Amino acid sequence: xxxxxxxxxxxxxxxxxxxxxxxxxxxxxxxxxxxxxxxxxxxxxxxxxxxxxxxxxxxxxxxxxxxxxxxxxxxxxxxxxxxxxxxxxxxxxxxxxxxxxxxxxxxxxxxxxxxxxxxxxxxxxxxxxxxxxxxxxxxxxxxxxxxxxxxxxxxxxxxxxxxxxxxxxxx
Length: 171
Known about the structure:
- By secondary structure, the protein is mainly α.
- It is built from seven helices and three strands, in the order H-H-H-E-H-H-E-E-H-H.
- The protein has a three-stranded antiparallel β-sheet with strand order 1-3-2.
C-alpha cells in the first residue's frame, strides 16, 4: 500500500490518498482471510454459502430448522440464491424441505442428522482456524480491533440490516 500511495502522490498530488492506508489494507486482509476460511469449508465439501446455510440452521437450535426466507435474511442473500443453496444441500442429504406445520403454504428447511454432524465438525475446525488467524494479534490488540471495527461498522452499515446477519467471513 505504501508503494501504491507513493505512486498516486507522484501522479496526483492534489488527491488525499490517506484512506488507502486503511481501506486498501482491509481489502487485502479480507481476501487473505476469505482464502483461509474457504479452505476449511472446502475441506468439508462445502462452499462458503453452503456453510452459512448449515450454520444458520444449527444456530436455530432444536429442531434445527428455519423457513427459506428466514435463512436468506440470516445469510444476507436473495431468496433465489438461497433456493439454489438449499437444492444443493438437499441433493447432498444435508437438509430436508417440508411444508410448514404452522402454515401449510410455507416451507421449512431442516438439518438432517448427516447435516448436523457435518456442520458440527466444520464449525469446530472453522473456530480453530479463526483462533489461529486472530492469534497473530495479542489479546489487547484483538479487543481493540473488535472495538474499532464494531464502532465503524455501526456507522457505515445501512439501517435495517439485521444484527444477526453474518458478516463475512464465516457463519
